[in-house]
What we know:
Blueprint: H1 2-23, H2 25-44, H3 47-82
Helix pairs in contact: 2-3
Amino acid sequence: MTDLMDAFYTCAKKVLVEDILNEDGEYFSRTRMIEHELKQLNAAVDKSTAQCVDDLVTEQAAIGELRECACFRAGFRMALELTR
């Protein structure tokens, strides 16, 4: 079942989630603001600190991806239970 959920998640993420987020003006404005703030921060600090910031942001994004996947799996399981 996990392989099936992973396949559905991959398809949903590539098609549905991206479309939903692109329709959401708040998502677009927040991502642009974060990109702008990161550029300013990286310009204001030395290379070592900039690398630390980049590493933290990358790790935070990975954690968000894991959380997103877990939410999808939970929703998928709930949908399966509702169809029984």
